Amino acid sequence: MIEPDHPRLSIVRQCELASISRSSFYRAPTMENEATLRLMRLIDGQFLETPWYGSRQMTRHLRRNGWCIGRHRARRLMSKMGLAPIYQHPKTSEPHPRHKIHPYLLRHLTIEQPNQVWCADVTYIPMRRGFLYLVAIVDWASRKVLAWQLSNTMEADFCVAALEEAIVRYGKPDIFNTDQGSQFTSFAFTNTLREAGIRISMDGRGRWMDNVFIERLWRSLKYECVFLNAFETGSEARAGIGRWIGYYNANRPHSTFGGRMPDEVYAMQQTEEKLAA
């Protein structure tokens, strides 16, 4: 995807065009064999159906379907994919011990204006010969995807890059909500929010329902795009995901909004806010 000896484009510029962080290019990810990649794709698909499955239940499910797998391996792969079950669980996936956890600010809050609350999440993107991680920044009220980035590592910098892109393009929200993943509790990410004057909110640990609609975004993306296209390269994945997100924002109706699209809802809400001011 990136050509180090490209005659006109620097590595930095190529990374910008490919929407990946420079550190992701320089860091070589640990490769998994084909059988393990297939197993990871099965785990990902099953987790979309049963997001309450921990490593024990996932192991039982895989064994029933003919896979010889132990719980420790299932736990390792789920951790590598960033999958955490929705129930409250013991200290198996604690946030980074030196990162501050912020309180959840959205309880009983009516969210109906654009840029009132943004949220973010990271998901695993399987490809034919590997995998990537995708982060998306979403406006809560309209469900519009404001920015997104791909990376081959779970480092925080690609999340920061997506956040900075969203702020440049759309301004800033009052509140930014995430889970307690180490990317979002990192100093780089939270400091970017603080410097922009954005209030920080974080879900309770294991509570995917606090960010339920972004989980629905991942489900739609994977079933309507990723699982239908066995992407060979990062460039193919970026192009395919970019097309789908463009379709999602501009052309995919949402029953929540009476069949209107996120772009339409976002623009309409902005207009109403200006008229009310």
Throw out a few tags for this protein.
277 residues, alpha/beta, Nucleotidyltransferase, domain 5, five-stranded mixed β-sheet, 5 strands
Task: Describe the protein.
It is a single chain. The protein has 277 residues and is of the alpha/beta class. The chain has 2 domains: 11-81, no CATH class; 117-276, Ribonuclease H-like superfamily/Ribonuclease H (Nucleotidyltransferase, domain 5). It has 11 helices and 5 strands, in the order αααααβββαβααβααα. It has a 5-stranded mixed β-sheet with strand order 3-2-1-4-5, with helices on both faces. β2 (130-139) and β3 form a beta hairpin. α4 crosses α5. The longest helix has 17 residues, at 234-250. Residues 88-94 have low confidence and may be disordered.
